[in-house]
């Protein structure tokens, strides 16, 4: 029987964070730091339990370990994202690029490599939650059949709603605000997400995922162009010969 995740939204008040990790020490430490930071914390030690908890009390954010018994974090993330937008921060033990890329590919909004500082994780949680909140007074953006409403955090292409993660939404908004300008991956990392440092491959993954949702043919992108030796440029107008 398919699990339903149409639980009522969290009531106004402290954000609810679901911590999913089979290591009781990690789970306890993370939950303790988040509790002291003012969050309501739920905990689960495996994938099925995490999905049950999410169905009972929809979290505002999930801190999700990649390596879980029974059902790995990638599958948990897929199922969570398949039933509505919920921010996910993935925890990976090995720190290998493939693990990080896989997490981002299935819709995780951020990742933290073990061992990590619990204080850093709390800051990541605060950053992701802040970006997930509606922006009051933001003007609607649009070009090339794309329409983006920052206040509602809603994006459409030719009238059809796009299922974007927080990072993808922020990236598309940035491109729409700066058409025709080329930006390096370092620039995008800093300007879009406020990261002073990090793995540049995460930018590449987000661009690839975004292309898959806004381009007619992601293999031959016409909107988000690669500028060799520089980075990327959003080009809403007709393609130029030779590009």
Automatic annotation (TrEMBL):
The record, for Pfam families, names:
Response_reg (PF00072), Trans_reg_C (PF00486)
Q: Which SMART domains match?
A: REC, Trans_reg_C
Keywords attached to this Swiss-Prot or TrEMBL record, sorted alphabetically, are:
DNA-binding, Phosphoprotein, Transcription, Transcription regulation
GO MF annotation list: DNA binding
Give the Response regulatory domain ranges.
16-129
Instruction: Enumerate the InterPro entries for this protein.
Output: CheY-like_superfamily, OmpR/PhoB-type_DNA-bd, Sig_transdc_resp-reg_C-effctor, Sig_transdc_resp-reg_receiver, WalR-like, WH-like_DNA-bd_sf
- Domain OmpR/PhoB-type positions: 138-236
The residue ranges marked as DNA-binding region are 138-236
Sites where 4-aspartylphosphate occurs are at 65
Under SUPFAM superfamilies, the record lists: C-terminal effector domain of the bipartite response regulators, CheY-like
Top-level division of the source organism's lineage: Bacteria
Can you say what this protein is called?
DNA-binding response regulator
Q: Which organism is it from?
A: Streptomyces asoensis
